[in-house]
Amino acid sequence: MSKSEREVSKKRRKKRSHPVRTFFKVLAAALFSVFVIALIVISIVAAALTVYVIQFRENTPVNIDLDDLGLAYTTFIYGYDENGQEVEMAHISRNANRIPVSIDEVPQHVRDAFVYTEDEHFYEHAGVNWTRTFGAVINAVTNNMLYGYKQGGSTITQQLIKNVTGDDDQTWDRKLREIFRAHDLEQYRTKEEILEAYLNCIGFGGSCSGIEAAAQKYFGKSVSELDIAEAACLAAIPRSPESFNPFASREANKTRQEYVLGKMLENAAISEKQYKEAMAEELKIVDPNSANTTANDSDVQNWYVDTVIRDVITEFSEMYGLSREDASDKLYNGGYKIYCPVDIEMQKEVEEKFRDYRTFSYSVVSDPPNAAFIAMDYRGNILAIAGDVGAKAGANVWNFATMEPRQPASTLKPLGPYAYAIENNTSNWSRMIEDAPIDIEDENDSSLTRQWPTNYSETEEDAGWSMEPVPMYKALEKSLNTVSARLVLENGAHNIFDFIQNKYQFSELDPNDSNMAPMAVGSVTNGVYLEELVAAYQVFGGTGTYFKPTSYTRVEDSSGNTILEHTYTSIQAISEDTSAIMNHMMREVVEGSEGTAQAAKLERVAVAGKTGTAQNWQDNIFIACTPDYVSGIWYGYKKVREVPVGTYYGTAQVWKNVFGDIADRAPNTDFRLPGNVVQHYYCTETGLLASEGCEHIARGYYKASQNLPLCEEHGKEPHIANTDPTEYDRLVAEGEFAAEENTGEQQSE
């Protein structure tokens, strides 16, 4: 073949192979173009994502402060038993039942159970486990093809952030925020601090949150007492708290517990021997209905707990400038410890009496009235309280002792006109005051006057006026409205109003109450709270001092710091002399032959008190002082109306039914009256110091500094009873004198 022929043949072969080469060239060019385009797209997307992430980071607050997590911790309320031992009365929570615990109190095997179950690389990563995170992303994109089930990528740090922020939306934005927050948190907090916060916030079923609350709920012990098997049981719960807790399913919990123990063994947190022992251990889960299980705000707590909660909320509202709602949240979620001056046994007895309708009525009634009771000591410490009759309906219900101002009626008389007159020396024990009405301006026609007030009488037609003078003490004993009105008239309604307002701190008194009717018979505009009324009667215990009533002594925060402490600041409302004289006067209300509270008399212990009944029996009150306690009872209807007379015991009898047994077994049987008060015999006709010719005399109580004028109508020299009381008593015993009218201490004999 010639050279030319070979060249022609070669050209023909090249021509035949061109389509293949062209195809590959085109393919290569196409693939390169796709690669370049993909690279460009990826670069653009990466750049866009980078810009997005940077902007997201800049525009989104991501920092988490473990000192201000806002976790809901359980608040505890404590009292003391008769031996002075601290007793838990209640624990309350709203968002969760959580008891804070330091990481130092959590044993290592408890920490390991959670770490190696929830995040086995916890001590190695910087807040985010990127391997698990990318795996979780791919698994989600491939519809769980990677693992065969939904797989989370969150570390303990991320779970903590989700719990404390409540930010748990299933979005990429949320996950990105969580990653940033986790990274930031790990930069300025140690692993131990993060683990402590995590163990204090995770849920364990129902309202139970935090490892300490869970240990108490399921095992009745503190976290520091948990063994390995118990720790694994609790570590099994957080993945699905409502399904894996042992109350819900012992089987499901057991299966998960075994997984936890396996992870602990795999990570050398426990030995083979410990693993086998824990696997074989028979767990002793507490009875879900036992006292060790969680109680919260939905449970029926006693009346005292209600009172403490309400009082501390009020204090928090003022301290922190919060609304009552926000102050309530702070209390319920703050992990506080509140200590109370409650008498636990007294509280139980009082509540038991209030659940029994027979305490109030001697017959079965279909429409019983509401009622309330409160007892204090003479430093204002509330010892027991009941807010209504019958079974308590729930937590924080309406309390008629602290939340319902009612008419004090005649219980205001000792505090106002009587105490004022004795304190200011305008009257005394035996001063004779006419039991007759006064003329006051008619409400409908100012040019006319009418006679006012009436006294209690059996019939509406009878105004109850004797039109005779009576000694001051006897007027209080019989609760004569006329004498009270005359004391107000001569001393000034405004003066007595200021006296009451300044001495006893009633919160609901109105300026319009500085008038005749409110000050004389207790018909005040807004009423008064039973709590405040009982507190005011402290002044009649002998010293004349007033203390603000309190249901708590101190409040500690979750770190044990005292943030609120009741200050016992006394007000010398009246002098000791006045207090002693008023005490004796009010003993006549109980012990006197015409006393309105004779039903309150006790066998061992002296009682001084005063009844009060508003118009038409709408409010019925008795306030009592005994040597150890000051207490009071009220009953009536919430919607003000008459309590049917004849169906219910009088207030003095109801008080005795509720409190008589308690008061009568108190250690002190008589009052200690330190005032400089003397006893004199007085003429019962004139009310003056008995002279030698006075045929009818009785004993009374007077300030030593106040000279009682001699009854010169019957003689010029003092009676032997005043000059030589011992000799007088001997002559009475021998029949030389007729026995005098008994009053005061003699009456109690």
How does this model look, in words?
By secondary structure, the protein is of the alpha+beta class. The chain folds into four domains: 1-59; 95-280, Biosynthetic peptidoglycan transglycosylase-like (Penicillin binding protein transpeptidase fold), CATH 1.10.3810.10; 409-664, DD-peptidase/beta-lactamase superfamily (Beta-lactamase); 677-748, no CATH class. The strands form six sheets. A five-stranded mixed sheet has the order 2-1-3-11-12. The chain has a five-stranded antiparallel sheet with strand order 5-4-16-15-14, with helices on both faces. The longest helix is centred in the first third of the chain and has 57 residues, at 3-59. Mean pLDDT is 85; it is low at 146-151, 291-298 and 742-749.
Summarize this, please?
With 749 residues, the protein is of the alpha+beta class.
CATH homologous group name of the largest domain: DD-peptidase/beta-lactamase superfamily
Q: Could you tell me how far the N terminus lies from the C terminus, measured between alpha carbons in angstroms?
A: 161 Å
Number of strands: 18
CATH uppermost class of the largest domain = Alpha Beta
Percentage of residues in helical conformation: 40-55%
How would the global form be characterised? elongated
What are its keywords?
single chain, 749 residues, alpha+beta, Penicillin binding protein transpeptidase fold, Beta-lactamase, 4 domains, five-stranded mixed beta sheet, five-stranded antiparallel beta sheet, 41% helix, 12% strand
